Amino acid sequence: MRKVRLRAGMFLAPFHPLDESPTLTFERDLELARYADELGFDEFWYGEHHTGAYENSPSPELMIAAAAQRTKRIKLGTGVISLPYHNPLMTANRIAQLDHLTFGRLIFGAGPGLLVSDAHMLGLDARESRDKLDRGLSVITRLLRGDWVTEKYDGWYDLRDAHTQTLPMNPEMEICVASSFSPNGGVLAAKYGAGMLCLASTSIGGFDALTTNWQIACQKAAEDGRVMSPASMRCATDMHIAETRDKAMDQVRAGYEKWLLYIKNQSEQLPDSPAHLTLEDLIERNEIVVGTPDDAIAQIHRLEQKVPDFGCLLLLDKNWSSMEHKKNSMEMLARYVLPAINGDNRNRQKSFDWARENRDGFIETIMSANQRAFEKHAAENRQSAA
To answer: Does the structure show a pLDDT above 80 at 4?
Structure first.
């Protein structure tokens, strides 16, 4: 049994092929949040990207503000705001306001910015992004707790008596940092008491780094007299579930080929790029699940071996299937996978087994009761006749 109940969520970069209506791609991503809320998912994340065309959502805050109007209980996360691209005071103000718009359901996710092409457009040196993430988090966390900040960073910001007029609705609003391969995510998670968004959990390299980065976070937190909770760790991976493996493969193959065009556009020149891999390759390498609930359960157990009791499984949606099949996959995860992992039906199973073990005695009792009813009825008829 887990010590920490596994939560479920979705993480949308998002990915949308070039032949889709941009208007309807945003609508799809909002509808998925509504449906995830209906199914009882715990978290839904929207990303930020500015180049490359496929990851076409430049503002997670706008998506969350719209999703908040369509959902009731699910937490909504910025996955992630690329802090080097933004003035930290403006970011803090938007986060505080957004927490009110979600009625305290916001998770503030931050990262250095993944696409070098984004940084290039802004005239930024992407090699400085991780240092700027640290600096930005330092300023924003102070602003969100009500501090006034006077601080300058040449070429980025010059804050003078900076403060947020309105503080977040939820004073305990969770902060998360992106973590993939380098130790930077673990170090910053410990430094700021933040959760870890492990966005390459089952990829080659990312899977191996899970334990190392978690240990780094725990060690750094211990040095500051704090303890990291595994509940704050999110593991993101690709999963598509259907009734059979063949059905699942049929449902995603065409979408995978479209997505692969984007990967080829970014990195086909590299011999070890995923642009050269087939669906079968990724499944064989355990990087993705395209199969049944049992396959999904096995993948979660693999992740648990790296970080026992990690807190949340994030479905890394890449828009490989139709909306109908995507919703069915989400429902199957909620109906079959999570109950198996969390032991939701353990008492039902015990009751089921107990009923079978005692069925002979119970049937004998029923038969005896029926016989007594017949005998009583016959006796009452004789008495009436007399």
So the answer is: yes
